[in-house]
Amino acid sequence: MRRFLLLALVFSFAAMAFSASIPKDTVVIGMNTGIFISFDPAVCYEVEPAIMVMNIYSGLFKLQEINGTIQAVPELAESYDISQDGKTWTFHIRKGVSFANGDPVNADAVVYSVKRVLQLKKSPVWLFESLGLNANNMNETVKKIDDYTVQITMDKSYAPNIVMSIFAESWGGIVDPKVAQSHDVSGDMGSAYLADHSAGAGPYILKSWQRNNMIVLVANDKYWRGAPRIKTIIIRDMPESTDQQLALKRGDIDIAWNLTPEQVNSLKGDPNFNVVSVPAQSNEYLAVNAGWGPFKDVRVRQAVKYAIDYDSIIKNIAGGYAIKVQGFIPYGYLGYVSDMPFDQNISKAKELLAQAGYANGFEVELVTNTTERRRNEAIAIQADLAKIGIKANITIMQASQMYTKMREQGIQMIIAGWGIDFPDPDALAKPFADYRVKQLAWRMMWYDDHAADLAEAAGFELNQTKRVEIYKELTNYWFDNGPFAILYQPLSYWGTRAELKGFDQTAKGYSLAFDLTKMYK
Amino acid sequence: MKLGSYILKRSLLMLLVMFGVLAIVFAIVHVIPADPVGALLGGNAPPDVVERMKEQLGLNKPLFDQFVNYVWGVVHGNLGNSIQSGRPVIRDIEEYFPVTLQLSIASIIISIFFGIFLGIFSAIYRNRWIDHFSRIFSILGVSMPVFWTGLILLLIFYYILGWLPGTGQLSLFIIPPEKITGMILVDSLLEGNWEAFWDGLRHLILPAAVLGYAATASIARITRASMLDVLNQDYIRTARAKGMPKRIVIYRHALKNALIPVITIIGLTFGGLLEGAVLTETVFGLPGLGRYIVNALLVLDYPAIMGGTLFIALVYSLVNLSVDLIYAVLDPRMRV
Known about the structure:
The complex is a heterodimer of chains A (521) and B (336). Helices cover 35% and strands 21% of the residues of chain A. Chain A has 521 residues and is of the alpha+beta class. In chain A, the strands form three sheets. In chain A, strands 1, 8, 9, 10, 11, 12, 13, 14, 15, 16, 17 and 18 form a twelve-stranded mixed sheet that branches. The radius of gyration of chain A is 25 Å and the shape is globular. Chain A starts with a helix and ends in a 14-residue tail after the last helix. With 336 residues, chain B is an all-alpha fold. The longest helix of chain B is centred in the middle third of the chain and has 38 residues, at 194-231. Chains A and B meet through helix 1, strand 10, helix 9, helix 15 and strand 17 of A and helix 2, helix 3, helix 5, helix 7 and helix 13 of B.
């Protein structure tokens, strides 16, 4: 009898296994959602949640990849005028657009949303502040002209693409003031509520978020471009990449977000799956501290750049999921320089070291963080440097610890990555070449005024052709003098089920642009 | 009365332990040469933005002031807000702990069942093949990494055989029960939602088996030792000499007495499970307390780390206290 019961139990389990498959109007994503903190546009700053926020909240502009370049195109701003001096922008807001709950999108909502970011002062606020907008001057700089016109005055005449790109990102999402204010708790402007609710005019609505468990988005049928084809998007928290691989193969998820290169390569050639990959919006770099010992000498910095075997790192460590880039402006950006001046050349590197008086090499601490890929890169570069007599001692630390040390200018040599904040060469030229903005160049003590002047000039250049020329000049100067070696531009990649169509269009421009409306089944 | 003063004494001691835990954890997380603001803002933020955020969060105050503020909050039942999410830590714990509790209860049931039976058989058939087998079996449980066992079981039962569901707590299209206790099985029972109960149970089998199996060895070992000890005593020989059936002697006379030390180890094991089995929760995608605390550690979310640790210390102490009380009830000699 007992045995019979056991058998019956086993069979009933087996019978239950053929559960319902995913409906045609639903997409299920397996993703590690550990870094999700908030869906509030004024708070959210991390990559994955930010791309969801961009699909929940429409902004004045929207980022799109057009002909291989990410550009800001008008979304809620139907048109705009720029004043003679280039500082004051007048946005004409599209009429007849409403939030998902039916409230109208108007000048009040736009002014409220921009001021909200400035007032809450959370992680993304510095991007608006970099345009000269802040909580103290916002009543003068961010103004409603009439119900559908808003005027914003920057402190300088920034290149239009910079302004548009910054307003096109997640923090530029327009929030329904009524909803936000009605959930205000002790002056948080609804921030606690909007962490897991939504009040936007984008193509999707955040229906629920159970932390570390599941996020559900449903289509906004009132979206002004028309309701998206996929009605429900479910993001299941799967911290383990092997789980994602198994679930994808079993058909329990449509998209596996965090596969390893080996796992995603195993899907290739199987007609049931697609592998989608796009250039990532980031740079992987090695940097040396130009204010420390031997690296003060430009020849030593060049020697390091000639010591690295770039191709081997791309092939063996990034598993081929990387593009060879050596300038700070990545592929697909205005001002991209295709020159590759550095290849491994040990004799040249040794010669440069000898000229600088370090024929016998020296010792240096090489810092990187705990991810497996960075560890491997550190080991490969350690071996490369050993060939020219430089003894690099690797120190691995948590990213938070590493960046703290870097901000204190306390790192001799580092391998890290730079995620691009907005799709304009300015977001790269400034950190990598202008020490005055206190970003990477400053952290690595490269106080080079010529480079800083060029980076600044390009930022204010309104003529696109001239701008590109300045970036080219800067990049060539930077190749010779800078403390950075760009190792590669990574590729982002996903495994998807073949019945899901259009995901390659969705992912174009990831992680700055990501359009969930492009996918269908 | 004696029991009452015993409990009171233990509770006072517990307060002292809590304070110690608080002070030590506070010291440790603040000694690490990194700052949570850097972790929160990522690698791109300029230094002045980092400084301003520190000021907003009160992290630029002297350490002693921060500690006093924190203790003051805790005394008033406020564990502070998570730096990362801005939510009250107590709310996060409320959300994540039931998942860990349910998993721990299921696991401890499995490990008690296997542990006690293996222990008894080992003792009765001492040094025979059953003994060797059960010892190897239970040692394997501790020595195989939970992470690995979990993935292998998922591969077999979910991917290849398809008998059991994959990760998570419920299947996608099952309507979850209303939140009452936060434990899916309990809530769906209370609500009479049989579909959710059945589905939740199927989701719980693998993680509970993995975790329970890992905890089996210690229980089996103590049961075996304690059982051997009891079986060698005079009253057992007397019972056998009187001609009592072996079964009755073992299960009625010996087991009852042999189980007393086992209870301690069960309590300790259960307390350990409640700390949150980070790896099991990760492999099976469960939103439990272990993962919450580890995530907090990675970004140095001080209030979350301290609140979580303090809560676990409290639970652990409470479990220990209950074990001691059960002990006292079972063995009158302990009350003296």
